[in-house]
Design a protein that fits this description.
Shape: globular
Strand content: 25-35%
Structural class: alpha/beta
Bound molecules: zinc ion
Helix content: 10-25%
Number of helices: 9
Length: 439
């Protein structure tokens, strides 16, 4: 069963080379399940027992299911992110080299491991804004062929490459586009041809390089899965499947996937934006509830902040904490951090442990080494807009922010089961100040 899920996961990732494509992939799955699209710029007509979704910037998405018994309701939220580190193509991209090559001018998006982008077929994907009459229309682009390469410098010209390598994004990382000097608008023409529109109708584009490597299942017992963008599309996909399978009459189940986590989330569609808060407020209003009802609902709400975690690296076991370290295929990672970069606390951890216990899903604990700063994630950032009890979780992986990452074959299936159990659970604040969990 978990092997089938892993195959579905990698086909989802393959169809999602950029956040725009990820949101389109998720929207397609939701539409197939009968979800109705809402627009932020239009009125929301929401009924109990309904299924809806809304996007922002076409790169963040929020879906929700309303229960049928919402007298004392709460929100069950699972959040993940749609973006991964990559190289973005600059506006005036073509650079001529001695009349013999055309390379593309790019800049980094997020904190990638630069070396993992060398010597492998790459292509371009993203969104293009096309003028149609008096309107601007968004078109998704994925040039589905090997188009670009960033060649390494030969060791003979850099004898110290294996001892020390420092990579400069403006000097070392520009991809080769052509073996000759191209016309100034060659890239634009290529994009226009691909979209079957006239080049002069293209007014803007957000284009990114992506790794063309096929996902792979490998290891002595096929226990590993490698693919681009496992962080965080593995969690985005698994939490979506759990959301679709869950069923809860007494709550509003919410699935959120935010763009821009890799650049700090401080954008109009990121986890630090008003997107989640706006949506929850509008759901509450559309259900005919008061702002007092919303405050009460939030007090009993719970969020899973889902983002991948670092597994122990076999060649560097000393890089992880002595005993709060995690392994692939051993279940869901609960992350905690004294400085609250991860939102987990004793109560949210206890709640999530009980949910996983009921679902028969193993959990493991992650903390950074005390002398090392780990990454941050979306949970604590979203809290500044909507404050609810949250646990930071994820799936163990290796090579985070490589262009080709590695995870465990079993773990997506674990998260699907745990997320389903979470959406099915009943969580509320009692007079005694403790939480009751019941099915
Ligand atoms: Zn992540």
């Amino acid at each position: 069963m978990y092997r089938e899920i892993a195959q579905e996961l990698v086909s989802f990732i393959k169809n999602s080379p950029t956040p725009f494509h990820a949101v389109e992939s998720i929207s397609g799955i939701l539409e197939g399940e009968g979800f109705q699209r809402l627009k932020e710029g239009a009125a929301w007509d929401i009924k109990p027992g309904g299924r809806y979704y809304v996007t922002r910037n076409a790169s963040s998405i929020l879906a929700f299911k309303t229960g049928t018994q919402l007298e004392n309701y709460s929100f069950h939220i699972a959040a993940s992110h749609s973006d991964s580190p990559a190289f973005k193509v600059k506006e005036n991209a073509q650079i001529d080299v001695k009349g013999k090559y055309t390379v593309l001018n790019t800049e980094g998006y997020g904190g990638m491991i630069c070396s993992t982008w060398f010597d492998r077929p790459l292509s371009l994907a993203g969104r293009v804004i096309v003028k149609e009459g008096n309107s601007l229309v968004t078109r998704l682009l994925n040039i589905d062929r090997d188009l670009l390469m960033i060649p390494s410098l030969a060791i003979h010209m850099n004898r110290e490459v294996n001892e020390k390598q420092s990579l400069n994004k403006q000097k070392d990382m520009l991809p080769v586009f052509s073996g000759r000097k191209m016309d100034a608008d060659a890239l634009k023409t290529l994009v226009a041809d691909e979209l079957k529109v006239e080049a002069e109708r293209i007014y803007g584009a957000d284009l990114y390089l992506y790794n063309r490597a096929e996902p792979s299942v490998w290891g002595a017992e096929g226990e590993f899965i490698s693919s681009p963008r496992l962080d965080d599309l593995e969690c985005a996909y698994a939490s979506l499947q759990g959301f679709l399978r869950g069923e809860n009459r007494g709550s509003v189940s919410v699935y959120a996937c935010f763009d821009n986590e890799e650049v700090g989330s401080q954008t109009k569609q990121g986890a630090a934006s008003t997107f989640l808060c706006d949506a929850l407020t509008r759901i509450n209003t559309a259900l005919g509830k008061t702002s007092e009802d919303l405050s009460r609902a939030l007090a009993s709400s719970f969020m899973l902040s889902c983002d991948n975690a670092h597994a122990v690296h076999p060649n560097y076991p000393e890089k992880t904490d002595v005993n709060n370290c995690v392994y692939m295929n051993e279940g869901i990672v609960i992350k905690s951090h004294a400085g609250q970069k991860y939102t987990s606390d004793a109560l949210s951890i206890a709640l999530f442990k009980i949910i996983c216990e009921k679902a028969g899903v193993p959990v493991q604990f992650f903390a950074n080494r005390s002398d090392m700063n780990g990454g941050s994630t979306l949970g604590n950032i979203a809290m500044s807009q909507v404050s609810v009890n949250t646990v930071d979780i994820g799936l163990a992986q290796l090579a985070m922010h490589s262009s080709y990452e590695t995870a465990g074959i079993k773990d997506a299936a674990y998260l699907i089961r745990a997320a389903e159990a979470f959406y099915n659970s009943h969580i509320c604040e009692t007079d005694a100040g403790v939480y009751e969990i019941e099915k």
